[in-house]
């Protein structure tokens, strides 16, 4: 099975679902990480062009922890729009190229505009990628199953599926720590220790799921989605 995890920024999938991705990879599924934005505005002191290079390397280093390919769509922080035809084309071509069986992305009610826009873009284009036109890349053969990863603090997010990630939680933390620029940024911008934050949410979902650490997901349940596909962990 091919699993495509799409976040708005280079560290989002590491924060929200890396334990599950590591577990999927460990049992033999192909896992591909994608971030829509370059992360160009994620630091107060580092200039944008330098920061882009740093964050791309951090993303590659994080993906290397689980030997997964990392793709950047090259959009800009704060400028992602679900109404942008250029952005839609990037997502369509991504899905046609990767041809995933499953996509994991942001919840529609996450906390910031880029996350919400990516959620909508993934929903829209994972269908559009199966239609003729748009691009010379051959159409995707099927509409992938769609799952939303936890929003950043779990507010108004009630998982329909929990994944026990105790055995891969330290791998998740290792991946997250590759994003050193963002450990600084999140402390300065949001006054949060993101490693502690992730551990706390993981423990909360673990309490709900009856294990030590868990990650929560909501399956998008609509017609044309292959809803009978079992979550592959």
Distance between the termini: 11 Å
DSSP strand tally: 7
Fourth-level CATH superfamily = LmbE-like
Order of helices and strands: EHEHEHEHEEHHHE
Number of helices: 7
Please give the share of residues in helix: 40-55%
What is the arithmetic mean of pLDDT?
96
So what's the CATH class? Alpha Beta
Global Rg: 17 Å
Total of domains: 1
Overall CATH architecture:
3-Layer(aba) Sandwich
Strand count, sense and barrel status of the largest sheet are:
7 strands, mixed
The unreliable regions are none
Q: Strands of the largest sheet, in order across it?
A: 3-2-1-4-5-7-6
In percent terms, what proportion of residues is strand? 15-25%
- Class based on secondary structure composition and strand pairing: alpha/beta
List keywords for this structure.
LmbE-like_dom_sf; 7 helices; seven-stranded mixed beta sheet; Rossmann fold; PIG-L family deacetylase; single chain; 233 residues; GlcNAc_PI_deacetylase-related; alpha/beta
């Amino acid at each position: 099975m091919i699993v495509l995890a799409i976040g708005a920024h280079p560290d989002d999938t590491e924060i929200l679902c890396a334990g599950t991705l590591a577990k999927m990879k460990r049992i033999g599924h192909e896992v591909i990480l994608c971030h829509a934005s370059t992360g160009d505005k994620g630091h107060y002191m580092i200039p944008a062009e330098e920061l882009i290079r740093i964050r791309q390397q951090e993303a590659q280093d994080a993906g290397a922890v689980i030997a997964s390919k990392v793709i950047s769509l090259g959009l800009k922080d704060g400028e992602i729009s679900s109404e942008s035809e250029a952005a839609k084309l990037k997502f369509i071509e991504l899905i046609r190229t990767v041809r995933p069986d499953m996509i994991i992305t942001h919840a529609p009610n996450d906390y910031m505009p880029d996350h919400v826009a990516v959620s909508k873009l993934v929903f829209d284009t994972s269908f559009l990628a199966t239609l003729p036109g748009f691009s010379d890349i051959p159409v995707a053969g099927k509409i992938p199953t769609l799952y939303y990863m936890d929003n950043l603090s779990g507010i108004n997010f009630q998982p329909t599926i929990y994944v026990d990630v105790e055995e891969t939680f330290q791998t998740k933390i290792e991946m997250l720590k590759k994003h050193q620029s963002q450990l600084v940024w999140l402390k300065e911008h949001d006054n949060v220790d993101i490693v502690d934050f992730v551990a706390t949410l993981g423990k909360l979902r673990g309490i709900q799921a009856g294990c030590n650490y868990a990650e929560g997901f909501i399956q998008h349940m609509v017609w044309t989605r292959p809803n009978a596909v079992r979550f592959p962990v």
